[in-house]
Amino acid sequence: MTVFTCTNCEHRLTNDLREAQAAPPGDVLFDHRIADPAVAQGTYAINHDATRFILHPDDVPGTALHPDSGRSVGCCGLDGQDGPNLVCSRCGTDVATKQSDCWTDNLIALIAVTVVGSTEPA
Ligand SMILES: [Zn+2]
Ligand SMILES: [Zn+2]
User: Fold this and answer.
1) Which domains are seen in the chain, by residue range?
2) CA–centroid distance, residue 104 to ligand 1 (Å)
3) Could you tell me if 41 and 56 are in contact, meaning their C-beta atoms sit under 8 angstroms apart?
4) pTM recorded for the entire structure
């Protein structure tokens, strides 16, 4: 299992996760319906260029919303188009972008350079 912690302060950001494959992106219809989560709860996927870890929206208990409300823009949720909108809840470093709007994916994208993944045998 893998746990991601903040590079800056070593605060634990996520639940215990196992690696999974990302589902292929589905068609996003503009119908004001929030998409199904991109990955199952308890799993994470690595994006195509390894700069992001894709997590379920409920797997990041160690993060907090960015204090700049300009980062938390969206229609039905957060669109994640204005920069990272989740920070480490201890030190405030930008660590992830949450997308949960009706026209975006529904996921957490952890920024790979801001987190450390530690793997323990299951
Ligand atoms: Zn909407
Ligand atoms: Zn931190």
Assistant:
1) 2-20+30-119 (2.170.150)
2) 10
3) yes
4) 0.90
